[in-house]
Amino acid sequence: MKSDRVSAIWIIPIVTLIIGVWMLYSHFADQGQRFTLIAHDASGIVAGKTVIKSRSVEVGIVENVTLSEDYKQVVIEGQIYKGMQALLNNDSVFWIVKPQIGREGITGLGTLLSGVYIELISGNDKETFNNKPFNLLDSPPLSGPADAGIRVNLESDQSGVIPRGASVMFRGFKVGSVETSDFDIDSRKMKYQLFIAKPYDRLVTQNVRFWKEGGVNLSLSPKGASLEVPSLDVLLSGGISFDVPEGSKFGDPVTTLTTYKLYEDKKSIKDSQYTDYTEFLLFFTDSISGLSEGAPVEYRGIRLGTVSEVPFYNDPMMSKTSILSYNIPVLIRIEPGRLSDLIDGQIDLAGLIMKEQKNGLRAALKSSNLFTGALYVDLDFYSDLDDKYNENETKQYGFETIATVPAGLSQLQAKLIQTLDNFNKLPLDQTINEFNKSLQKSQELMASLTTIVNSKEMQNLPKDIKATIESLNSTLKSVQPGSTLNNQLKADLQKFEQVMDQLNPLLETLNDKSNSLIFAAPKKEDPQPKAKGN
User: What pTM was computed for the model?
Assistant: First the structure.
């Protein structure tokens, strides 16, 4: 009879199988989430030894290190421990921690004894992990994916690079940093990504402008010299500042990764707000050395526009003239907004310029800085040119034109040449001939005077004068006091006084009564003295 009971010998294999299955299940159940890292090299990373940490807490380990199929990259396979899987998101960030010397000083010294390790920062992505490989960074990110703030992109076609980690400032206060700094070969532009932390992200609006900082800025102007020295950190590694141009509104907030243009300096951002302009073409006969793009266009010190291109050539121009022509073309922009800022109103500045050329308005090159030789375009009235305006030349090669005059030095040279020409036109030969004739007559007159002086009559003239003086002296001596004539005159005067004394009574009587010589005059009584007080 066949037995239905299982032989006891099968108990041991069954128990062993159950234990194996349980151990296998326990092994896989205790395992965490697996992931893959891509790196340029595996320096210091050892499979089974290099750990993964988050905030200095071990959360995983590196299990395998191999090369990619094309042997150009390192593939690192790691595992997050059970219970730590929530740290692994689609936007998590990994970087290798090792001894480094950077802007913040010396970091990672602890890895000299323990060996390098991989640091993990969890992201904000709440979607299911998609097992997409992560890039292993060589240095820690300047901001984590969970940090609150805004990221913006900048583009620049200027020379020079602002390094990763440089400061981003608003009115001198650090509000963020440069996260990436790359050169785009296709567009041939530098591209930057900035991170501006919260709450300063509200400063980034539609109308803000970004410009480069760094270096010592020395400027010379009619107001004097100005020297601006940035902080040591900005001076060594550069930086980026942003603000709203003066007089502009803040605008609405922007979304993350909005792209802005990076300007060369703060001065150039003011020019960027004048988007309404009219282009004019100028032709100069002077040298344009010292005139550069961005130079001001002024009217008696008031800025009206900007030099756009120096020199300027387009296809219609090149088809009709040579690059070595007598006139050098310069393209400028007349920006009415600059004048509107002063008068608080709109004005047709371009039309006004075209109209005033009939009254002598002209453009000229003038020096703005004697030290650097920089030039600017100056508009002013020249009264002697108001009748030399040709309306047929107001538009050339598709642009409105402004007539020009030579520069100040050329004007001075022209006036000097004109003065010399006028001097050469003077009748100098005739004047010299007349002068020679006058000199000859003067010599003849002098000869005649010499003859008169040397004549016998002029020699006898002193003798006659001497005789006349002696006769006059003899006459004067005859009337001097004590002389006979003087005594006789005195005696005659005394007799004349006596006669006048005798005639006085008669004259008084005649004064009283004019007919007293015919009729007897009444007898006068002697005057009676009056008592005092009467």
Answer: 0.53
